[in-house]
Structure formats: structure tokens, C-alpha cells
């Protein structure tokens, strides 16, 4: 029995269900658009840290999910949407890692820099653009993950707390295995 390559397994449906139909990304994209506009309205100064990279496109690749996220952090032309793994749009940088590690990066209460140095997150392309994006996230008063959770009320905050615990447990397991 041969094992299926990770990339082809992720190109269909959810992980573990390779023959499931592709996710209907058009249902997710209005929510992502609402999120990015809300974060931008709450934190207009964060765009200053991006400098010339505010017009850049970033590909955020949660390797354990069947989709990728496409971000253009330009306050005049914000774009944040889910994209299919089989049709990657042009981008200047790609940030890849497990979903929980990417969440930790956005959750400024956690040490996102350690994820880069531990190679839990992999950056390809323009690393200067990614550093500017990380600096912009650091300038946000309330962690972006909390702002997003608050948009969905008590269920959103509960989900964030669950994900934070899952990320902490994953880090503990990783530390115990090294």
C-alpha cells in the first residue's frame, strides 16, 4: 500500500477526506472580507509599518487545510480571500505552516517570532515583506485573533480559547518529543 502525497491529499476536500468535494470558497470569502475590513478600521496605523509592501500580495498557507489565504494589506484596496491550492495566484511571499502555528503568529499574545526561528513557519519569497507584515501585526493593540473572535460573540471567543489551548498543547507535545 502506498501513501498518498500530502499535496494531492490537500487539493481535494478536508484533510483525511481526499475524495470530498472542494470547499465552496465563495461562501468563506465574504466572511474574510468582513474580517479584514474590520481589522483595518480598528487599526489604521498598522499599514504605516508595511511601507512599500502595502501593495504586495501574500499567500498564507495552512498546510493542514485544503485552502490557502490570499492577502493584500493595502488600505485602499484590501483583499483577503480563500484560494484553491491548485490555482495559486501571483504573490511576493508565502508563509507556510500548520493552522495552529499561523494562528499563533496572528495572536500577538503569543511569541510568533519563535515560530520563524524554530522553522514551524516557512517563508518563501520576499522575506523583507514578511518582516514588515509581522511588524504591522505587532503594532495592533488587541490581538487580531481576539478581534476576529469578538466579531462572532461568545461562540467566537470560545472557539479562540479552544484553539489557543490546542496550540499550547501542540507546542508542549513538540517540546516533549525533542
From TrEMBL:
Source domain of life: Bacteria
InterPro entries given in the database record: SCP2_sterol-bd_dom (IPR003033), SCP2_sterol-bd_dom_sf (IPR036527)
Record-annotated SCP2 domain positions: 48-137
Pfam family, one: SCP2
The name this protein goes by in its record: SCP2 domain-containing protein
Lineage of source species: Bacteria, Pseudomonadati, Pseudomonadota, Alphaproteobacteria, Rhodobacterales
Amino acid at each position: 500500500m502506498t501513501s498518498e502525497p500530502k499535496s494531492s491529499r490537500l487539493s481535494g476536500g478536508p484533510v483525511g477526506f481526499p475524495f470530498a468535494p472542494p470547499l465552496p470558497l465563495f461562501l468563506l470569502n465574504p466572511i474574510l472580507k468582513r474580517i479584514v475590513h474590520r481589522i483595518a478600521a480598528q487599526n489604521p496605523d498598522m499599514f504605516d509599518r508595511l511601507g512599500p509592501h502595502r501593495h504586495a500580495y501574500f499567500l498564507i498557507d495552512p498546510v493542514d487545510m485544503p485552502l490557502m489565504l490570499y492577502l493584500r494589506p493595502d488600505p485602499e484596496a484590501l483583499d483577503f480571500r480563500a484560494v484553491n491550492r491548485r490555482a495559486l495566484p501571483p504573490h511576493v511571499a508565502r508563509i507556510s505552516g500548520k493552522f495552529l502555528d499561523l494562528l499563533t503568529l496572528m495572536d500577538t499574545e503569543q511569541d510568533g517570532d519563535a515560530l520563524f526561528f524554530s522553522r514551524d513557519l516557512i517563508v518563501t519569497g520576499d522575506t523583507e515583506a514578511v518582516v514588515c507584515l509581522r511588524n504591522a501585526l505587532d503594532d495592533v493593540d488587541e490581538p487580531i485573533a481576539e478581534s476576529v473572535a469578538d466579531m462572532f460573540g461568545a461562540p467566537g471567543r470560545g472557539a479562540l480559547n479552544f484553539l489557543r489551548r490546542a496550540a499550547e498543547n501542540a507546542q508542549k507535545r513538540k517540546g516533549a518529543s525533542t
